[in-house]
Design a protein that fits this description.
By secondary structure, the protein is of the alpha+beta class. Helix 7 crosses helix 8 and helix 8 crosses helix 10.
Length: 468
């Protein structure tokens, strides 16, 4: 049985009378827990820790859990969760034999509002506790965003890096083939006039390769040319003719070109074919290397733009650059879906002075939420236009299921989330709103119905400076 006398050891009741403490004792339900027991994991209840110790356990997004802090008797907990009617950010586990008293939400609120000293003590504790919890969650949110960004960048870099390595290896083989063919020419005693003809035919093949149109590169057209060239090469006794027919076909050369090469090369036909094919392959591989390195360079550039590396806090930006950098960072989430991104960018948008990396957190949260809302298919539309003479408006909308009307007023509240447990901290939109409204003196609004959810961000030309 819980008594009013033992409640006097808890600081929450320092300034109340014995009769008021007795009111708490009368509604408190006594419970005992053994080491390792879960304590009030589900539901919202105010807890009076009378004896023992509790570990605070927080669930992580990856499904694991971690200990975050410890409560030692005599103390109290759960007031913020009950007053705000939000699930507690963590649950507790007994470290040793522990005795608690639980007070239901209705009794708790009634007694808090009846007893002003208790109310004031909770309010004094409310701000530092919520600030500390919120700070921890915001750090987790940033780390989660950083992890997502790093994973996305690694995923996007892997493909061009692998392609570049493969092309480099094959390029070395092609260069060896060129050297081997030249040695064969020397050994075969190819005359200067014939060698000149080889060079001319190689130049024609290279020029043809560079001039190939999309129709010329059509797989069916290439396959047809390859079959015809393969037959001619085999008729000339060229070994492993299939190796050379493919690069020659991709270059767009025809039977007439090949017949001229055979006429000039004679006994060195195989070496001549190998030399031209290796030259074409090397050029093709060089193009692939250029594409791969351009892609990697573009990703690094997007990363620098996203993070605004080597720049001060306030930077003058074109919002389109930040949106494109964010889309690049999130590309891995879109790659295996049918989600379409439509850009309805306005012309001649003014630049704005912003905290660049922070603003890109806004785009990341809004776009990531839109992707999550759509799942495997749908459309995300990003619209921009000038606003208020020298500011900008950005609208990010999706054609997903929408947010229920009764929840729309809560989406910007700290810790509120519509995602499943463990999939979000509930600070993404709160953080985004703070960045837009508090840091940039802009606005962020939501409109949602089935088939359309739109977040509208207004950014002024520059945030106001506070003079010291």
């Amino acid at each position: 049985m819980i008594t009013a006398e033992e409640l006097a050891s808890i600081d929450l009741f320092d300034e109340v009378t014995d009769a008021e403490r007795a009111a708490w004792a009368a509604v408190a339900e006594e419970r005992w827990y053994e080491p390792g027991d879960e304590v009030i994991r589900e539901g919202m209840r105010f807890v009076l820790l009378l004896e023992g110790r509790l570990d605070g356990i927080r669930e992580r997004e990856d499904g694991t859990s971690e200990v975050e802090g410890q409560q030692v008797a005599p103390t109290w907990m759960g007031a913020i969760s009950v007053l705000t009617e939000q699930p507690p950010p963590m649950w507790f586990r007994a470290v040793e034999r522990t005795r608690i008293g639980t007070v239901g939400p209705e009794d708790f609120r009634r007694l808090v509002f009846e007893q002003r000293p208790v109310f004031l003590r909770i309010m004094r504790q409310f701000r530092p506790v919520i600030s500390r919890v919120e700070g921890n969650e915001m750090r987790r949110e940033k780390l989660a965003s950083l992890g997502t960004m790093a994973a996305g960048l690694a995923h996007e870099l892997n493909n061009p890096a692998s392609a570049a390595k493969r092309s480099a290896d094959q390029l070395a083989e092609s260069l060896n083939a060129v050297t081997s063919a030249l040695r064969t020419f020397v050994e075969a005693g190819v005359e200067r006039e014939d060698a000149q003809k080889f060079v001319e035919l190689q130049d024609r093949a290279v020029t043809s390769y560079a001039a190939c149109t999309i129709e010329d590169k059509n797989p069916l057209a290439v396959a047809d040319r390859e079959d015809r060239l393969l037959e001619l090469l085999e008729d000339q006794g060229v070994r492993e003719a299939w190796k050379y027919a493919e690069p020659l076909a991709r270059a767009g050369v025809d039977e007439d070109w090949l017949e001229q090469l055979v006429a000039a090369a004679g006994a060195a036909t195989e070496a001549a074919v190998r030399w031209v094919a290796a030259s074409l392959t090397a050029r093709s591989l060089a193009d692939e290397l250029r594409e791969s390195t351009d892609r990697m360079s573009g990703l690094v550039s997007a990363m620098k733009t996203y993070a605004y590396m080597d720049q001060g806090d306030l930077v003058e930006v074109d919002v389109h650059e930040g949106l494109e950098a964010t889309l690049t960072i999130l590309a891995h989430k879109l790659k295996h879906t049918s989600i379409e991104v439509v850009r309805a960018y306005g012309d001649h948008l003014p630049t704005v002075c912003v905290y660049g990396s922070e603003l890109n957190q806004v785009w990341t949260n809004l776009l990531d939420n839109a992707i999550s809302a759509l799942g495997e298919s749908g459309t995300i539309t990003i619209s921009t236009r000038a606003w208020n003479s020298d500011g900008v408006e950005v609208v990010i909308e999706d054609d997903g299921p929408g947010i229920p009307e009764e929840l729309q007023r809560q989406v910007f509240d700290p810790f509120f989330t519509t995602k499943a447990v463990g999939e979000g901290t509930g600070l993404g939109l709160d953080t985004a709103r703070r960045i837009v409204v508090d840091r940039h003196q802009g606005t962020m609004d939501l409109e949602s119905r089935p088939g359309r959810t739109a977040f509208t961000v207004h950014l002024p030309r520059a945030p106001r400076r506070v003079e010291g």
